[in-house]
Each structure stands twice: as C-alpha cells, then as structure tokens.
C-alpha cells in the first residue's frame, strides 16, 4: 500500500470519527439541555427508587 492511499484512508477515518462525535454530542446535549435540570432529574429518580422498586416502571411513570 502506497503512502498516498494510506493518507487518504486515514483522512477518511478521521472524518468518520469526527462525524460520530458530532452526532453523539448533538444527541447528548439535546437530551440534557442543562446541568441543573439533569441533577434535579437524577435526584428525583433517586427519591423514586425505593429498595425493590423496578427502575423501568419508574421511568414509564415519568413519561408524559
């Protein structure tokens, strides 16, 4: 494999990785608009999760 082909493959790889990071970041920030609301949500879930309670049922009860 020549040097130019290897460089082209590496550039293609970097473009795919950067696209993945961009999409992941957009999804992550869309789901968690700000830190305080995320922390408040975590505290709310912690209050709901009593010993022996099913986390999936708690999540379903929180959905609109």
What descriptors fit this protein?
64 residues; mainly alpha; 3 helices; rod-shaped
Protein architecture, described:
- By secondary structure, the chain is mostly helical.
- It has one domain.
- Helices cover 80% and strands 0% of the residues.
- It is built from 3 helices and no strands.
- The chain has helices at 3-31, 35-48, 55-62.
- The longest helix has 29 residues, at 3-31.
- The termini are far apart.
- The model has no long low-confidence stretch (mean pLDDT 69).
Q: Gyration radius, to the nearest Å?
A: 21 Å
Count the beta strands: 0
Average pLDDT score? 69
Number of domains: 1
Q: Output the number of helix runs.
A: 3
The residue ranges in which pLDDT falls below 50 over 5 or more consecutive positions are: none
Structural class: mainly alpha
Helix content estimate: over 70%
Straight-line distance between termini: 56 Å
Give the SSE string.
Answer: HHH
Q: What is the topology?
A:
Layout (H helix, E strand, L loop, with lengths): L2 H29 L3 H14 L6 H8 L2
Quick rundown:
This protein has helices at residues 3-31, 35-48, 55-62.
